[in-house]
Amino acid sequence: MFGYLFERFPSFTQTFCAREVAALRGHGVEAPVFSIRNPDEEPIHQAFPNLGETTYLPAKFDEMIANDAGFRRAARKGQETLKALWGSESEKHRIHESLWLERACRAAKIHHLHTHFAGLSARTAFWLRRQGGPNYSVTAHANDIFRDEPPERLAQVLGEAACVITVSDFSQDFLLREHPHLSKKLHRVYNGIEISRFRRSPIPEGRPLMVGVGRAIEKKGFFDLIEACGMLRDLDFECVIVGGGPLEESLTAQIAQSGLKDHVKILGARSEEEIRDMLAMARLFVLPCITGADGAMDNLPTVIMEAMACGLPVVSTTLAGIPEMVLDGTTGALVPERQPALLADKIRLFLKDRSLAAAQGAAGLERCKELFAIERTSASLLEILASHGAISP
Description:
By secondary structure, the chain is α/β, with parallel strands linked by helices. It is built from 16 helices and 13 strands. It is elongated. It starts with a strand and ends in a 6-residue tail after the last helix.
């Protein structure tokens, strides 16, 4: 049986994972789900049908270590192996999780686990496999391969996987350069969305609304967006930035200092339904992604797909996989990162020309249907998993 292993499921910020699980179940793949952590403190983003039950791992393993001699011996041996391979016992909880999962997978007759992000859950799957557990595969995304994982450990975790999926041509090329040993088992599958859930914007007349969606963190580039709005104050428009986060207070202060309170608003986190409603009334979507000072960057932002599904032109940057989504001059506009003046010039085009926004938004919707419809992406994923023995064809 094929199953999933997540660090946290379902997660407010990772709805693409829930969509994928539901889509595979729609294809007849039972796909039981294990989650290392319980997201009970996260807000509920939306209710996904067809997800079934999630099995959560114990929050602590103290009782098992104290009362189960077999578990205790295996944990001690596993930690010694982990320390020899990775230089410390800081990841010892991966051993505990993998030992618990080995028993659970054996009982459920699971022969393959798929995990998203080459991080904590993939490390657990790595140790699970090394201790005789099922094969695993990984979908790699952005910071998990660009920044967060030490290269030597990433090479081991991905190298042990039966296959590796990544979500853009950009990240596929990156992994091939950095880890050429993956060449025979590395595949690109875009994240998918349910396009029918999004209402197409009529690109309404009147005061134009531009929307940006993302956490208030550096890599989203919202400081550049606010600066660009300051260069557009001769126009009548409203800009709404949706998504709370650690930089929300700084962004609000920038708006006040720039005298843009009548033009720009910062909203906290909103549900997918609320975001869909805002997109359906907008003229354009703007997300000027940048590479953060710590190296963090987006790869294939799902919110851009969602804006395209609403028939909006997208103004963004030439970073990572974004040019695979947005065709400059056809479905929106792209500028180099950290160039607010150029960003303002592109935004101005759509604020002043409603027909241009409508035409390029329509082209973006067609591109979204071609590349990002969940029916297409899940079928591609199933084909790849079957070719590597993860599921029956």
